[in-house]
């Protein structure tokens, strides 16, 4: 039977989150119903809510959910009711990139996660009084008390770890960690520079601190963020990337094209810059072509190029062991206080708001 639940709905681009009773469709064979315990708030949620991306509104967002499985479809094999899960992005599972262990580059990634608002066959997962709502956001739409979730978005995790402490692993944290571990792969003695000390950038700092890199440099304009970066393992902090030369790896999280260009200029020969920050569609950046001939690489990144079933449980284990101190980033808010969480994130008061539902 369809299930009625309470969700935070964005009515139109630029409108605030408001609460409504919504109805979830019955789970299909490869879907599950999850009782959401916590959900991280991400800049991607705010970008869609502002109308900056063509997601169908009214709709239910949320893509850093964590909760407990309540029911599963007939073909689900990876989880059972009662399992604790972190929710991440979905993917088709059939294209070359999915089969090759790179589901973040699924051939249907945009439609399935970010802009479609529907299942792959065009059907809706959530309605309100018969009205079709945008849903299926990252295969989950977790700004709700319960969510209908793709099996490929589900990652079973250690039930001894509090779900509010690991909800951000589904997007922001794995993006920053993956930029370092999956792309840069620091070697002993190398220098890693992280541009921007938000949630993604600070996750990259923590990942670099756990790597063989000798120097981990965080760059930001906000002194408090640089203090936090030092707590999380940065060996040096700066306010201007132009002070850096000879970086082996750079993670660009700001979405500022001038910062990106300066980051490329700061690379050593054969160095790599990973582009994580996303400016508006159509944004271009000018690079010195001759400057690239020393073997510099500029690599775009989605969600850390992560294979979630292996990476997320590893990160949960590091959180449990105290080696990935996400609690230093997180501020918790009651679900009803989502508006305050949005404001505090926008004002920079909280690095990573987590809604406790």
Describe the structure.
Helix 4 (172-184) packs across helix 5 (199-209). The radius of gyration is 20 Å and the shape is globular. Strands 3, 5, 6, 9, 10, 17 and 18 form a seven-stranded mixed sheet that branches. It has a six-stranded parallel sheet with strand order 13-12-11-14-15-16, with helices on both faces. The chain has 357 residues and is α/β, with parallel strands linked by helices. It contains ten helices and 18 strands. The two termini are 23 Å apart. The model has no long low-confidence stretch (mean pLDDT 97).
Draw up the topology in text.
Elements lengths: L2 E8 L6 E8 L6 E10 L2 H7 L9 E2 L4 E8 L11 E4 L8 H4 L9 H6 L11 E3 L2 E2 L13 E5 L3 E3 L15 H13 L6 E5 L3 H11 L5 E5 L3 H9 L4 E3 L8 E6 L4 H9 L1 E9 L13 H4 L4 E4 L7 H13 L9 E5 L3 H10 L4 E5 L1
Parallel strand pairs: 11-12, 11-14, 12-13, 14-15, 15-16, 17-18
Antiparallel strand pairs: 1-2, 1-4, 2-7, 3-5, 3-9, 3-18, 5-6, 6-10, 7-8
Helix pairs in contact: 4-5
Short recap of the structure:
Helices cover 24% and strands 27% of the residues. The protein is α/β, with parallel strands linked by helices and 357 residues long.
């Amino acid at each position: 039977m369809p299930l009625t639940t309470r969700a935070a709905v964005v009515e139109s681009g630029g409108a605030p989150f408001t609460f409504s009773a919504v109805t979830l469709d019955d789970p299909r064979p490869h879907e599950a119903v999850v009782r959401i315990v916590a959900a991280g708030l991400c800049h991607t949620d705010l970008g869609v809510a502002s109308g900056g991306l063509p997601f169908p509104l009214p709709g239910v967002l949320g893509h850093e959910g964590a909760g407990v499985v309540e029911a599963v479809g007939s073909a689900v094999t990876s989880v059972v009711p009662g399992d604790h899960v972190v929710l991440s992005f979905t993917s088709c599972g059939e294209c070359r990139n999915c089969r090759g262990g790179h589901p973040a580059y699924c051939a249907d990634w945009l439609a399935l996660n970010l802009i479609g608002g529907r299942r792959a066959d065009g059907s809706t997962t959530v309605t309100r009084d018969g009205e079709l709502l945008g849903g299926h956001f990252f295969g989950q739409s977790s700004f709700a008390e319960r969510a209908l979730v793709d099996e490929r978005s589900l990652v079973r995790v250690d039930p001894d770890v509090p779900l509010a402490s690991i909800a951000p692993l589904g997007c922001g944290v794995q993006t920053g960690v993956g930029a370092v571990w999956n792309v840069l792969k620091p070697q002993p003695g190398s220098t890693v520079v992280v541009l921007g000390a938000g949630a993604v950038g600070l996750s990259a700092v923590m990942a670099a601190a756990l790597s063989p890199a000798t120097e981990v440099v965080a760059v930001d304009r906000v002194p408090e963020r640089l203090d936090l970066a030092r707590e999380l393992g940065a060996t040096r902090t700066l306010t201007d990337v132009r002070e850096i030369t000879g970086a082996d790896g750079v993670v660009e999280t700001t979405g500022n094209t001038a910062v990106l260009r300066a980051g490329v200029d700061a690379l050593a020969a054969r160095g790599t810059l990973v582009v994580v920050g996303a400016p508006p569609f159509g944004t271009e950046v000018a690079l010195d072509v001759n400057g690239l001939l020393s073997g510099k690489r500029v690599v775009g990144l989605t969600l850390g190029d992560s294979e979630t079933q292996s990476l997320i449980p590893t990160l949960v284990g590091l959180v449990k062991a105290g080696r990935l101190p996400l609690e230093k980033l997180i501020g918790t808010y009651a679900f009803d206080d989502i508006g305050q969480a949005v404001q505090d994130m926008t004002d920079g008061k909280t690095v990573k708001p987590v809604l406790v539902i």
